[in-house]
Amino acid sequence: MRTVLKLLALAAALLVPTACTDTGDAVSGAIPVRSTADACEVGAAEAPSGNLVFEVTNDGPEVTEFYLLADDGLRIIGEVENIGPGLTRTLVVQAGPGSYVTACKPGMVGDGIRGTFTVTDSGAAGDVDEDNAALPAPAPQPVSVSTGCSFTNATTSDR
Amino acid sequence: MLANFLIGLREGLEASLVVGIVVAYLVKTGRTRSLPRVWAGVGIAVAVSLAAGAALTFGPRGLSFEAQEAIGGSLSLLAVGFVTWMIFWMARTSRHLRHDLEGKVDAALATGGAGLALVAVLAVGREGLETALFLWSATKATGTTTQPLLGAALGLTAAVALGILIYRGAVHLDLRRFFTVTGALLVVVAAGVLSYGIHDLQEAGILPGLNSLAFDVSASVPPTSWYGTLLKGTINFSPQTTWLELLAWLAYLVPVMTLFVRNVRSSRVRRVPVPAQT
Predict the structure, then answer these.
(1) What mean pLDDT, rounded, does chain A reach?
(2) Which among A90, A133, B108, B195 is most buried, taking Cβ atoms within 10 Å?
(3) How far apart, in whole angstroms, are the C-alpha atoms of residue B118 and residue B18?
(4) How far apart are CA A55 and CA A92, in angstroms?
(5) Which stretches of chain B score pLDDT less than 50?
(6) What is the ipTM metric for this complex?
(7) Which residues contact B42 (CB under 8 A, 6 or more apart)?
(8) Rounded to 5°, angle at Cα B67 from B149 and A138
(9) Which pLDDT belongs to residue B190?
(10) What contacts B98, CB < 8 A, 6 or more positions away?
(11) According to the model, what pLDDT value does residue A108 have?
């Protein structure tokens, strides 16, 4: 049992840097993205700054990925991978006002199918530093178990 | 379905391989007493991943990209540390075994059991949340189609089956060869995990050089192919590898493999040049 306690302690230690982002308001404003073998249809050309939520559906035959890139087309602002055929996955990302590039990458190779995306100034926080990735909520939200934010210990993203 | 099968296989393979080796190790050295701890660790990692994944998929909150990359990168680096510790710990234990130093082996296993459980936890947990998010989104899709979930589940099952095969193969080796083969394999796995962690940090913009590639063989090893999947799932081979990833991979693999081989060979050496993890 001592081991189990140690493991739980480790889990707790890993929680500390965990940053959660409230998608509660944003989900209603989620931007649908449809990725196919030869198209990347982003449901909106612009969005107000702050929390952006992309709901990426793969309607193609191959595994796809979705990226939000800086306007140089190189720096990654956010990405979601392992979107198998038939799946819908969510990318939550915080973006300040400016121009961005969206990209779907069917087959997981190449530069992807790109488009431009504009984030308008809503007054909401944009570039949030790494240590404070949680959105400043209007009122402190009780972190309940159901939020998943209090016990996330194991995660990774695939490349 | 095949595409989702391959994702499940890729995500499950490395964990399955590492857990297979840990279990084979405990069985071979007759320390089955420690097995429940390892299984408890695996169980906790799976349960926590699934619960967190479900909460993030169905709950009102999502994990920001930055947080996911930072956690992914740091768990990878932590996993590299623990697997490195395990490699040298196994090498040392094997030397004691060859010299019939039963007491020392017992002492090592008494302290090492918890460490092995942690290795299993990290091996599963590292890919755990990403896999859980993938699985839950496949579950969500069952309203329209059950093919993705079926494919994903079969892929994970295949990964577990391969882990069992590795366990079976490893358990039949004689002890000396067992340590040499599994140790060398773990060095290669750990080097891959390190390079993967570097890539995560490059994607997050914490490390530079994401776009300066050392090589790009994605035309001959497509990441969607079965062999691309197996290479990625076991040794984290990426068809598009950046210079920094390649350098980190070499900077880990060359010295660690050299130390390991020297360690396994020189049975007379008393002190082991082990990195700080012990």
Answers:
(1) 74
(2) B195
(3) 11
(4) 9
(5) 268-270, 278
(6) 0.87
(7) B19, B120, B121, B124
(8) 105
(9) 96
(10) B175, B176, B267
(11) 93
End-to-end CA distance of chain A: 36
- What pLDDT, on a 0 to 100 scale, did the predictor assign at position B66? 80
Is the CB of A140 inside 8 Å of chain B's CB atoms?
no
**Domains annotated on chain A, with CATH:** 23-122 (2.60.40.420)
List CB contacts (< 8 A) between B40 and chain A: 3-4, 7
pLDDT computed for residue A131 by the predictor: 40
The residue of chain A nearest to residue B124, with distances taken between CA atoms, is A154
User: What does the pLDDT read at residue B164?
Assistant: 97
Using CB atoms and an 8 Å cut-off, which of residues 74-93 of chain A contact chain B? 74-93
Res. A4: pLDDT tops 60:
no
Contact A17 B70 (CB under 8 A): yes
Given an 8 Å threshold on Cβ–Cβ distance, is A17 in contact with B71?
yes
Smallest Cβ–Cβ distance between A147 and the set B59, B71, B126 belongs to B59
Give A24's contacts in chain B (Cβ within 8 Å).
60-61
The C-alpha angle A10, A13, A16, rounded to 5 degrees, equals 150
Helix (H) or strand (E) holding A78, with range, is: strand A76-83
Percent above pLDDT 70 for chain A:
60
pTM, whole model, 2 decimals? 0.83
Q: How many CA atoms lie within 13 A of B29 on its CB side?
A: 33
Partner residue facing A23 (CB), from B48, B61, B152: B61
Contacts of A121 (CB under 8 A, 6+ apart): A48, A49, A97
Contacts of A27 in chain B (CB under 8 A): 60
| Confidence band, pLDDT 50/70/90 cuts, at residue A123 | confident
